[in-house]
């Protein structure tokens, strides 16, 4: 049985540098389970949050200006982080933002695996972000995209694809400048083997995608298309 450790990171952002907040331990994965930022001075500082993969590639997931005195949830649905991945955060002005982050650290399993699929979309062609392997079922825990540019990006389409290659549209529209979007409407989705998660971006090199997956070896049950 996998072991779980509950931990958190809380504090005030005291600098304007890109600071390391959390690193997933070796031989673990983590679920970023709750994420809360509070503006405490009545001002409007900027906040940037990046997920850094094990190859030190940075994926911006938040880049916004806080409302004076307001609080916000960074990711309203749980986000999976793989071994050695990091969270870094940068404020536009020091001493104005408090953060409260919660994590569940879990031993990575053999039959059941938590996966984080992050990607910068470098083409306007349809991109496959994840495909369920043979003899497996997957639960898509969360599915985010973030427009990193300062301009709106029109013409985005988000799909689940059947094992036969038929794309089924689940979301579409314009990604507003610096916006973070969730495509599951507060519910998880089950995918069967051979089925895929796809994104058709309206512009190149500006859309980051984040797909959190619980992948499980099949134990029998019905098949699907």
Question: How would you portray this structure in words?
Answer:
With 225 residues, the protein is mostly beta strands. It folds into 2 domains: 4-107, Sandwich (Jelly Rolls); 112-217, Nucleoplasmin core domain (Jelly Rolls, Sandwich), CATH 2.60.120. Helix content is 0%, strand content 59%. The chain has no helices and 18 strands. The protein has strands spanning 4-12, 19-23, 28-39, 46-52, 58-65, 71-73, 79-81, 86-91, 97-107, 112-120, 126-131, 136-147, 153-161, 167-175, 180-182, 189-192, 196-200, 207-217. The strands form 4 sheets. Strands 1, 3, 6, 7 and 9 form a 5-stranded antiparallel sheet that branches. Strands 10, 12, 15, 16 and 18 form a 5-stranded antiparallel sheet that branches. A 4-stranded antiparallel sheet has the order 2-8-4-5, with no helix packed on it. Strand 4 (46-52) and strand 5 (58-65) form a beta hairpin. The protein is globular, with a radius of gyration of 18 Å. The two termini are 32 Å apart. 30% of the residues are buried. The mean pLDDT is 93.
Which key features would you list for this structure?
225 residues, Jelly Rolls, 2 domains, 5-stranded antiparallel beta sheet, 18 strands, mainly beta
- Estimate the mean pLDDT confidence: 93
Shape: globular
Low-confidence stretches: none
CATH topology of the largest domain: Jelly Rolls
Task: Give the CA-CA distance, first to last residue.
Answer: 32 Å
CATH class of the largest domain: Mainly Beta
Q: How many independent structural domains? A: 2
β-strand number: 18
Oligomer type: single chain
